[in-house]
Write a structure and sequence with these properties.
about 260 residues, alpha+beta, 7-stranded mixed beta sheet, 7 helices, about 20% strand, globular
């Protein structure tokens, strides 16, 4: 068994390219608008997408807050995508590596994650980001449903197919009572992350504090998925009059206030 297991590992290792295994890589969580902008950037364009600016306080070089990271976009993005972002660095995270796979199935190790960042709009761009959120909300309200008129007015397509006669009862006595499905048994489908964020902002416009159970009912989204969004946008109240509820972080409260004022 040990010999077979060893051969299996050796076979897998031979297909893994590890030349860049020790290269330092940064892992960054960025807003949806930035991700879409970068994804649409032509690969043939040699110009950089953005630049990272590192600021150091010379009076307190050893302080935990002496290092400040910001990202400046190249300025080629369309629309109202903010150009300046703050990068909050995390020091405690699970060791991770980055892998890539080609269309031919070749797997390569691209490096180890040295720093992990949370990217959010800079305070000076909050109003610009609020405008972007309002645009996304307006687009999500546009209904794409269409009404189609059926030319065949004889109802051929609505008749039972051969073999189905007798399976469908036309009498009310034979109809079975519909068993209500419990809400917990319903499998919820995840929405687009940006669309869900817009819905969350709208809910917090209605009231400042929400419990997780209430948000699950309002959005019809999986609780675990909602928690991921809430951890980014909100603060959880562990004590006080609003214990057990979520409220928006200060930087996002500004966005909601601007949205409400604009409407």
């Amino acid at each position: 068994m040990d010999e077979e297991h060893g051969n299996s590992i050796g076979s897998s290792s031979s297909n893994l390219e590890t030349a860049k295994a020790e290269r330092s890589v940064w892992l960054m969580k960025c807003p949806v608008a930035v991700a879409k902008s970068w994804k649409s950037h032509p690969q043939s364009d040699p110009h950089p997408l953005a630049k990272v600016v590192l600021s150091l306080d010379p009076l307190h070089p050893d302080g935990s807050s002496s290092l400040q990271f910001t990202m400046e976009m190249a300025g080629t993005e369309a629309g109202s995508v903010p150009k300046s972002y703050s990068l909050n660095m995390f020091k405690d995270f699970v060791p991770m590596s980055v892998f890539s796979e080609t269309n031919q199935g070749k797997v390569a190790m691209e490096g180890k994650v040295e720093h992990k960042f949370d990217m959010k709009p800079h305070s000076e761009n909050i109003e610009e980001y609020g405008k972007l959120c309002r645009e996304r909300t307006s687009k999500s309200k546009i209904k794409s449903r269409q009404i189609q008129v059926i030319d065949n007015d004889r109802g051929i397509h609505m008749r039972p197919m051969p073999g189905m006669v007798g399976l469908i009862s036309s009498t009310s006595k034979d109809k079975k009572k519909t068993v209500p499905v419990k809400q917990s048994d319903v499998k919820r489908t995840r929405r687009d992350r940006g669309e869900l964020e817009d819905i969350m902002f709208k809910l917090f416009e209605r009231q400042p504090n929400w419990a997780l159970k209430q948000l699950v009912q309002e959005t019809d989204q999986p609780a675990q998925f909602l928690k991921e969004i809430l951890n980014e946008l909100c603060v959880y109240n562990k004590r006080g009059t609003n214990q057990g509820t979520y409220e928006l972080k200060p930087e996002y409260k500004k966005v909601v206030e601007d949205t409400t004022t604009a409407e």
